[in-house]
Amino acid sequence: MDHVEEPPGARSPLPSGARGLAVRVYRRIARWLPLLRTVGFVAAVGIVVAMGVGAAGDVHLDQLTWWPLPLGVLAATVWWVLLGRGWVLLLSGRLNHADFSSWCRTQALRYLPGGIWAPVSRGAIMHGSSLDRLSTVAAENVLSLCAAVALGGVALAAAGKLVWSPLILAAALPVVASRFTASRSRIDPARTSRATLNYLIAFVGYMVAAVLVQGAISGWHDLATVAGAACLSWAAGLVVVIAPSGVGAREWVYVELLKGSFGHADLVAGALTLRVVTIVAELAVLVIAGRPERHPAGPKSR
Q1: Partner of 31 at 20 to 30 A CA spacing, among 58, 145, 234, 284?
Q2: Domain that holds residue 71
Q3: Cα(167)–Cα(155) distance, integer angstroms
Q4: Domain for residue 1, yes or no?
């Protein structure tokens, strides 16, 4: 089990007797943990590859101009790395490989039916009180959601669709809310501000990836509208938790928001190709950074 330090003042998630039992059980299975982590890593890679192959099978290759796609993968990779960095900033307050690696592996679980297993697994392996665990997992999703919605509002307003401009205020909501969680959890205003800025930069990368992908299919027009629709459709996919990784919901919202600006076939191709591009980026980061440490630290008795 990946070890995460408790924040100062956090209560132990287990009573002393139960914690002692957990330590004894850990000692019994410790020699098997490297194997279990390796198996989990391989399984995560397999899940992502399977999703990528399935999405790629629906893309008509004759519709694509190829040169923007590697740039799209690069932009999506920046987005994905910064999503993981956001989790680490919320969890530990500082960057470290162990937490980022754990995030990469648990993210693959969002493709499983139910769509909730990635955050549930991260909540299970972190230390802290029940409230602290819940608030940290919730903060990751709320901050990324608000960043996507706010940038979607910025882009659509820049495209002349001013009715979407109030969404820009979503970027401030997590910082305001953190004032009420700071006394009982690690989610304080300073940590929340850093993570919010991180997520905003991350979704700039996602917008760039979406523009490059749609431009590769239908040409270079209505770029701000494409960027805004991509962010809002990603947010919709996050909210529809019953859809694994927002599959279907994200693509439907993307097509609906851009309907009239592009042909239907081009929009469907753009949505599916963007899915493939982001999966390729995720797979690359998972393979490079998601491998578990060879000699991870075990749980500490407190």
Answers
A1: 284
A2: 16-289
A3: 10
A4: no
